[in-house]
Amino acid sequence: QVQLVESGGGSVQPGGSLRLSCAASGTILDIYTMGWYRQAPGKSRELVADITSGGLTTYADSVKGRFTISRVNAKNTVYLQMNSLQPEDTAVYYCNADGVAGTYRRFGSWGQGTQVTVSS
After folding, report:
1. Which residues neighbour 13 within 8 Å (Cβ) at sequence distance 6 or greater?
2. Interval 48-83: pLDDT, tens
3. How far apart are CA 120 and CA 112, in angstroms?
């Protein structure tokens, strides 16, 4: 079983920055894609950004130029640097990983979520 543990959420004023981290643990053979999603109250969960093992990235239009996703493959860890945060970025942020576990079975795992609140 692959588990994801997130850290780095919190409260910040508009224009501030936060950095989220997510580490995957378990018997992992390969992680194809790691990503961050978010869900605001009353809204559906949406993709914020993701990154492949080769470093290809995808960003939601709303965060382009403000957020940067990165990963360290050797540590099975993904990061999300969030700059110029705005109140509309307030949400629970979830880490996601898609890959192959030690049993040679495909897995897709979610973290428990971390709250990000942007408010003055």
Report:
1. 118, 119, 120
2. 999 999 999 999 999 999 999 999 999 999 999 999
3. 26
